[in-house]
Design brief:
alpha/beta, TIM Barrel, 11 helices, 7 strands
């Protein structure tokens, strides 16, 4: 089972606090897997913190592809105006990327995403060259659930001559929450997200290389409030993962960051989420959760 944290490396203090949630990284807690931003100003500093543990295989590492928050990783962001504003900051969210992917601008969008994803992958592999043969990917706000984004991301992996061995497909079944007695904790917004993502991802497994592992995933239903997860849900998911012959991934977003330190403080929806006290509650849950 992977107890996973997205959004690692927004700032140095957050990166240190997340590592403190892992007993494998000289901290306390059950965290054993992390996804890192390459477009954070603190990417290199965050890499220095986690690199020794990655090299000793004490924690699993993934690249957290980001197309919706903060600065572009491209050398010249002006070449991808469909993705960024005049400041060079990403200007879209899941919904606008989905709409663009269905619009007359879809070819322009595809080219821009290939360019941006390639820049992020190359920056990541420059610091972690050993990951070229065992690349693990996921995306900020699960945007690779959008078919065009997934196509562009897979093209970027190929262009960077990397071997993809693991990719999250963020589909979920609400029945597991019902069986665990916490369906009422899943907001209507998150129920809608699950239905949309499940629909968009119907053909995703067919596109991913057969040698690439796709874990059983949990993280959208209680997104932002994973501290409400209970042992019954974990046991239910473990049983389901065993039946399907898959690894299990539980997704958390631990440790809040002050708004002024977020990737783009002017992007209010993302900045508010980043600064939410719920992230600290998720961090506390990682100190309490039990792996069986």
């Amino acid at each position: 089972m992977r107890i996973h944290a997205d959004d690692f490396g927004i700032c140095e203090q957050q990166a240190k606090a997340i590592l403190n949630l892992s007993s494998s990284c000289n901290g306390k807690g059950t965290l054993n897997s992390i996804s890192i931003f390459t477009n954070s100003p603190y990417f290199i500093d965050s890499c220095k913190l986690i690199q020794p543990f990655v090299q000793r295989n004490e924690i699993s590492l993934s690249l957290h592809i980001n197309l919706v928050e903060g600065p572009s990783s491209c050398a010249d962001a002006n070449t991808i105006p469909i993705l960024v504003d005049k400041r060079g900051m990403f200007k879209n969210n899941f919904a606008t990327l989905l709409l663009l992917s269905l619009s007359p601008y879809r070819k322009q969008l595809y080219r821009a995403i290939v360019k941006e994803c390639s820049a992020q992958i190359n920056r990541y592999l420059k610091v972690f060259p050993e990951q070229r043969t065992k690349l693990s990917l996921d995306t900020h706000q699960h945007v690779h659930a959008i078919p065009l984004v997934l196509d562009a991301l897979l093209a970027s992996v190929s262009a960077c001559q990397a071997n993809l061995v693991r990719m999250r497909i963020p589909t979920e079944n609400l029945s597991v929450y019902k069986n665990a007695g916490i369906l009422s904790e899943v907001s209507w917004q998150n129920r809608l997200k699950i239905r949309v993502i499940n629909f968009l991802c119907k053909k995703a497994p067919e596109k991913i290389p057969s040698t690439c592992s796709i874990p059983l995933f949990c993280g959208v239903g209680l997104s932002g409030k994973m501290y409400k997860i209970n042992q019954l849900l974990i046991d239910e998911l473990n049983h389901k993962a065993t039946q399907e012959g898959k690894d299990l991934e539980l997704l958390f977003h631990p440790v809040s960051v002050p708004i002024h330190q977020c990737l783009d403080p002017h992007n209010k929806p993302f900045a508010r989420a980043c600064a939410s006290i719920d992230r600290d509650k998720e961090a506390q849950k990682l100190l309490e959760i039990r792996i069986t």
